[in-house]
Amino acid sequence: MTSATHTTYLVRHARTAYSARHVVNGSVKVDVPLDAEGTASCHALSAPWLDTVASCVTSGFTRTRQTAHALLGDRHVVLRSDHRLDEIDYGIFEGGPWTRYGNWLAEAGRDATPPGAGESWSGAVARMLSGLSACLEVPGPRLVVGHGLLGSVVRWLMTAPPGERLAQPFLPEAPCLEPVVLDDDELTRLLSDAGERLGLAAVPEAAGR
Known about the structure:
Blueprint: E1 7-12, H1 17-20, H2 36-44, E2 55-58, H3 62-72, E3 78-81, H4 98-108, H5 121-134, E4 142-146, H6 148-159, E5 180-183, H7 184-192, H8 194-198
Parallel strand pairs: 1-4, 2-3, 2-4
Antiparallel strand pairs: 1-5
């Protein structure tokens, strides 16, 4: 049996005013904090595994750091940020409804970069998975607080039939605060063929493996 010290708990940040309305925010220059319900849901979460967390990694966005602080409370856990876990850059779609970006993505494809953005869907996912891989370098059990796209991708990789490739870059929305639990071996295996299954040009490698 794998030791609990080799476990990653990946969660999507708690609710914000944007996420409640399915409005996109992929720019760290636009500060979107948790709303009252999001903060309350963090404080209300009672999960025994939270008491075991030895380290925490978040994206560079305010809402992920707020989520981590609210979940961990006064526990003595070192919190660090990794911009590889940041939300996708939406370019001209920033601040608009997700459906507007989604319609463009359906036409342009996963490898196209939105006007005004610095990365494609494929590039963003490869970056996020690289950041998730790097989390293996910090002590476990570890809490990783990221964004909806990373959560959706990891859930698909875990539940889709082995070897299945993602046909279209559209996945069910990841729920806020519901952890995906992976031991180090599972995470390493998940990352080993993620690039091929997701149609990524860059294949993330598991850190230290």
